[in-house]
Design a protein that fits this description.
With 297 residues, the chain is of the alpha/beta class. It has ten helices and eleven strands. It has a single domain (2-291), classed as Metal-dependent hydrolases (TIM Barrel). It has helices at 38-50, 71-78, 96-103, 106-115, 135-151, 165-175, 194-203, 220-232, 261-273, 276-290, and strands at 2-4, 7-9, 17-21, 55-58, 81-83, 85-87, 123-127, 155-158, 183-186, 206-210, 239-242.
């Protein structure tokens, strides 16, 4: 089953999926660019749905303004399935005192949000550091693994600049015995090394490409090549695609690409250059497998 904010659904009901995005988010790292407008969030969902979009995964974790209580109504009004995240981002996104207080019961917090909260989450979001796993990341990865073992929830990883992917994968699978099929490694388009992408896919983890590029991540021109490299090596079943809208200026109502970009631009390019079956895998088949699990609790 896939755990949405309106309850569990069969994987085949998920449909066309934006596998990594944000309806709400706030961080001291993005002052003045908070996503905190429910009407704007609904407009984004409507624009996505108008092009055939049926599901969005919000990767906003605990403490970064996910507004979980608002998500069920947005899902009902838009007709779009929403999957929410628990978890914890890098330390820089939190007040130090707030972070210190939550660290003492981190796994318990994740498990509660996955299984017992009024609006249940369906993903554990964690984050690596730039080219390494720092002490904070190691602690959060351990808590995420504990919550995964207790619930079955998939683990999604923010890779800073797309780096440290193999180290994070080894930490989760080798140290904490998380099956690679339950791991989604995000932002790999920011480190467009096809050899690493193939290694991740061969291990069984999901390869997350999110776009369009931001001004300081000008890597869209690598994206189709990276996808093609995975397809050519027999790993079309490991590809996930998302929009990763993290600032108000990136929304379509602010003349940004918004969520609709995935379908009106990227899906069309994939269909034209790689074939409709690859687009179907990336937007429908793969997300249905990546976000489904045998839930405990």
């Amino acid at each position: 089953m896939i755990r949405t904010v309106l309850g569990d659904i069969e994987p085949e009901s998920l449909g066309v999926c934006n596998a990594h995005d944000h309806l709400f988010i706030r961080s001291p790292q993005l002052p003045g660019q908070e996503l905190d407008d429910a009407d704007a969030a609904l407009t984004e969902l409507h624009s996505f749905a108008a092009l055939g979009g049926q599901a969005v995964v919000q990767w906003t974790p605990w403490g970064m303004g996910p507004r979980l209580a608002d998500l069920p109504e947005l899902s009902r009004r838009s007709g779009v399935h929403l999957i929410a995240a628990t978890g914890l981002h890098q330390a820089k996104h939190y007040d130090p005192a707030e972070l210190a207080a939550v660290r003492v019961h981190l796994a318990e917090l994740f498990i509660h949000q996955l299984t017992a909260a009024p609006v249940r989450t369906g993903l554990i979001k964690v984050a690596g550091a730039f080219h390494h796993i720092d002490e904070h990341a190691r602690y959060v990865l351990a808590a995420a693994a504990t919550a995964h073992q207790a619930t079955g929830a998939p683990i999604g990883v923010h890779l800073e600049g797309g780096t440290a992917a193999l180290a994070v994968l080894d930490e989760l699978t080798g140290t904490h015995n998380v099956a690679p099929q339950r791991i989604i490694l995000g932002h790999l388009h920011r480190f467009p090394d096809s050899a690493i992408h193939r290694q991740i896919a061969a291990a069984g983890a999901f390869v997350g490409f999110e776009g369009p590029s931001r001004a300081h991540h000008a890597v869209d021109w690598h994206l189709l090549d990276n996808i093609a490299a995975l397809v050519d090596s027999g790993h079309a079943d490991r590809i996930l695609l998302g929009g990763d809208t993290v600032t108000a200026s990136a929304r379509s109502i602010a003349d940004g690409p918004g969520m609709a970009y995935l379908l009106h631009t990227l899906r069309s390019r994939i269909e034209h250059e790689l074939g409709p079956e690859i687009a179907t895998a990336a937007f429908i088949t793969n997300p249905a497998r990546a976000f489904s699990t045998r839930w405990s609790g």
